[in-house]
Each structure stands twice: as structure tokens, then as C-alpha cells.
Amino acid sequence: MLRNLIVMAMALEVYQMTSKFFSSKLRAKSCIVGLMLQKALPAGRRGFGSILLIVIILGAFALGFFLLKSVAKYSSRNYGSQQVLNPDEPPLKLKTIGVNFEDFKFTKQKLQFDRLFMEYGFVIPAGNSSTGQDKPNPQPTFVVPLGTSIRSIVDGIVVAIPTLWSGDFSVQVTQDGKMQKWIYEMEHVINPKVKVGEKVTAGQVVGEVSDFNHGAPVGFGATEIGILKGGQAPEHVCPFAYLDDSIREETFTNLGNLLKAWEEYIGDQKLYDESLTIPGCLTLNPIEG
């Protein structure tokens, strides 16, 4: 008799737990089992085996529910992560543009092409290009004072810091620290502040602007940012087309204000094209190199 009472108490406890945690539809089903149990208890006609069977059924029902819920949650999360992957687009979005807008300083000194900023796709004349031919600029270029901090444009891991033809460095970052199809570049950097294999966050200082650009005035240097797509013929895409949602609108507004203010400063209102679909991108086509 005592054994039956103990088992009945256990059965009631399991029933209360299932009723508490199940959704409305499942609770309705558990109530049916509960009614069976309550009907069995006062009658006192069910033996130990019957009561134990009900306990097992309720326990299995509860366990199955929680297992199914966990699997569904995992599958949903896994499916969602797969949805974002697209091999034809960079996996990381830019959270900075490599410099801060307050880093730009206006000067009356002569600037190459009269610009503090050269857009992606800006055609560098043959006499000034490294190839000796007209060349579309594959990496947006910023002219800023020497000593300006250059910042990582994405969250990732430093994969390489090669020395460039100009004697300075390119800090290259990928999603996982391995050479991948997509590489994020901060080029023409001196005094690197990071090492290969180091994890970096967007906005973290990775070095200083280089003085390689002989066309920059005294006290100024140039730096570039890029998104390199590897392959048989490596090419770049426009970084401004891949800004993170958290900075996109603010960056476009600040860039527009900077360029307009510079045009007013030098007295040339037609220096930059303000009708671009994506500011900073004179073209959205990939550029080889």
C-alpha cells in the first residue's frame, strides 16, 4: 500500500511538471493522461504496475517534447546561418573606412589631382600610374596628415603583413586568419601595431599612414583600403558597397559633407560626382589588380 502511494505521488508530480511547461496544444494532450491518472487514483483499483506505467508514459512524453524542441531550435539557428553565406560576396562588412573623418585636414598646398580622397574607379592618368597606362583605382585612397592612425576596417584575424613595392606595408585581414578568397586590406601603412595571427576588431589601430605618395604635400601621406577577391586574375570590389548597416548611412552623409566642404574650400564645385548611387564608388564593376 505504501509503495502504491509513493508511486502515485510521483505520478502526480510528473503530471504537474508537464502541465507547467508544455504549450497549450501539448498541455491538452497531457491533461487527457492526467485525467486517466486522477481517475485511477481514488478508485484504488489500479495496481502498482498500472500506476508505474502511467509514470513512464508521462516521463517519456515530457522527455520527447524537450528533445524535439531543442532539435528544432538548433536546426532553425543552423539554417539561418547558412542563409547569409554567399561565395560571390565578401563575408565581412566594413565597420570603419580605415580613418576617421576628423583625421582629414584641409590645406592650400598643392595636392595630386587636387583631391584629399580618390574614389574606387578613379582613373589615374598614365603618367602617374604604376603601369604607365591609364589605370582605374582599385582601392579608395585617403590623403591625411602624417602620424594619422590607420584602423582595421573589419573584425577578423591578421593573415599577412607583406612589404609593398613602396617600402611600406599592407595589413591584411580575413575572417578566420587563413588565406581566403576574400581579403581585407589596409595598405600603405608604416609602424604596424599588430602581428600575423592577431585578432582585430573594426576600428582598432593597425599602424600609421605612410609617406610613400610623393604627390602629397609636406606633412601628408596616403593610405588605401581594399577588398581583394582572389582567383586566377585577382580583382578588387568597391569597399563602400559593403558597409555594415550600423555605419552605412552615417558614413555616406559624412563622406558627402567632407567632399562638398573640400570643393568649397578649393573653389571647384564639380570636382566630385554627387549623383553616385553609392558614394565613393565611381563603378560597381570589379577592377583587376
Task: Give an overview of the whole structure.
The chain has two domains: 2-84; 101-288, Glucose Permease (Domain IIA) (Distorted Sandwich), CATH 2.70.70. The chain is globular and about 45 Å long. Helix 1 (2-21) runs antiparallel to helix 2 (24-43), helix 1 (2-21) runs parallel beside helix 3 and helix 2 runs antiparallel to helix 3 (48-84). Mean pLDDT is 80; it is low at 1-9, 18-33 and 70-84. Helices cover 33% and strands 19% of the residues. Strands 1, 4, 5, 6, 7, 8, 9, 10, 11, 12 and 13 form an eleven-stranded antiparallel β-sheet that branches. The protein has a two-stranded antiparallel ribbon with strand order 2-3. It is built from four helices and 13 strands. The chain is of the alpha+beta class and 289 residues long.
